[in-house]
Amino acid sequence: MKTHYLIVLLLVFAACNTKPKKQDTPKEAQPAEKEMKAVSVTKEPFGTLPDGEEVERYTLTNANGLEMKVMTYGGIITSLQTPDKDGKKGDIVLGFDTLEGYLQDVPYFGALIGRYGNRIANGKFKLDGKEYTLAKNDGPNHLHGGKKGFDKVLWTASETRSEDGPALKLQYHSKDMEEGYPGNLDVTVVYTLTDNDELRVDYSASTDKKTVLNLTQHTYFNLSPESETILDEELKLNADTFLPVNTTLIPTGKPEKVEGTPFDFRQPKTIGKDIGAKNKQLEFGKGYDHCWILNGKDGEMKPAATLYDPNSGRVMEITTTEPAIQFYSGNFLDGSLVGKSDKKYVFRSGLCLETQHYPDAPNQPGFPSTVLNPGEEYHTTTIFKFTVK
Ligand code: GLA
Questions:
Q1: 54 is catalytic
Q2: Could you say which of 218, 234, 290, 357 is catalytic?
Q3: How far apart are the first and last CA of the chain?
């Protein structure tokens, strides 16, 4: 009897001991599992540019069915489908059904921005005593890389293998003095739609001459595609200070505390709550169009913003290695552009949350540097995570 009991005990012990080993081998199970899900990157023609160049559009689908479309012109995200709290998918970015839509005078819908996100005062900056002159494409200032910034060039696309989900690599070679900026610049942007329901954007670049660089992404979000405006969406920004601007939206150079101002988003509040407050800064921006300085270290991944839409239950959390975020509440949209599903893009129908360095840093020695030297590798990462609650 006793020996039997011992044998049973031993067998139970052996069985218990082998179990974790089986669980330890999910690596073998993973590929088969993944194959069963519709993870894919597909490609289709998306029209022809006036100069005859062909534009392609890629569709990335992750393991949970999140779907993002990106075209090679401007690296533009033309649609992003995520589920609402009832599991119903909806397109949460502003844009157009056709390439022609994007060839109108469109304020950077969905596009990659370079060489310099936001404004450079008077379209001028100096490097090592040499002055560089840029296009003044926003009143007296230079905005978003100039007349033909990275939002209007054709990127070379290729699928990349990523453990995390479907990914698309976009590359662009910007020639020395293109749009007035020095240095031959090689830029790579990788969009990954992770199986964790994140859009990860990895930017990298290198130059052969000292230059300045501030890359970002200019998607207009509306987490409630049915809603006219973004005013009922709740925003939280991980920032104790922001950069006040002058009348032409150039930072004055002196960060201010958000405490006690309409710029305080440290606790979530609806965008509409204080946007109409009597405030000089809101007057200059016609609403929010400012740069918030993120709490945490430049170069390290940290929370930047959380956007929550009580109507659809959608939540978008942004983390970044960048030191700042430009929050623009769509104040220049005026209903003249008609987009997907014949939707009129009215005043504040979309918002941008652009992770970046500070505007006008090349002219403001007190700001974190945006200089890129030959031999250095520029690298920043921003993650947009989509959930519901
Ligand atoms: C940025 C700027 C805004 C505006 C938009 C595009 O967010 O800060 O002032 O130019 O881009 O219209």
A1: no
A2: 218
A3: 58
Query: Using a 6 Å cutoff on CB, does residue 107 contact ligand 1?
Result: yes
Is it the case that residue 17 has pLDDT exceeding 50?
A: no
Mean pLDDT computed over 117-136? 98
Residue 289 CA to ligand 1 center (angstroms) comes to 7
Any atom of ligand 1 within 6 Å of the Cβ of 205: no
Whole-number mean pLDDT of the chain?
A: 92
Gap from CA of 159 to ligand 1 centroid (Å)? 30
Of all protein residues, the one whose alpha carbon is nearest to atom 12 of ligand 1 is 107
Sign of CA dihedral 325, 141, 76, 114: negative
pLDDT exceeds 60 at position 316: yes
**Is 53 annotated as catalytic?**
no
Q: Kindly list the distances between the CA atom of residue 27 and the CA atoms of 30, 31, 33, 166, 344, in Å, as whole numbers in the listed order.
A: 5, 8, 10, 18, 48
CA of 177 to the centre of ligand 1 (A): 24
**178 Cβ inside 6 Å of ligand 1:** no
Query: Which is nearest to 159 in space by CA: 144, 151, 170?
Result: 170
Quick: pLDDT tens for 212-238.
999 999 999 999 999 999 999 999 999
Query: Of 239, 325, 245, whose CA–CA distance to 280 is shortest?
Result: 245
Q: Is the pLDDT of residue 266 over 60?
A: yes
For residues 354-379, average pLDDT: 98
Q: Among 135-139, 158-162, 206-210, 282-286, name the one with the lowest average pLDDT.
A: 158-162
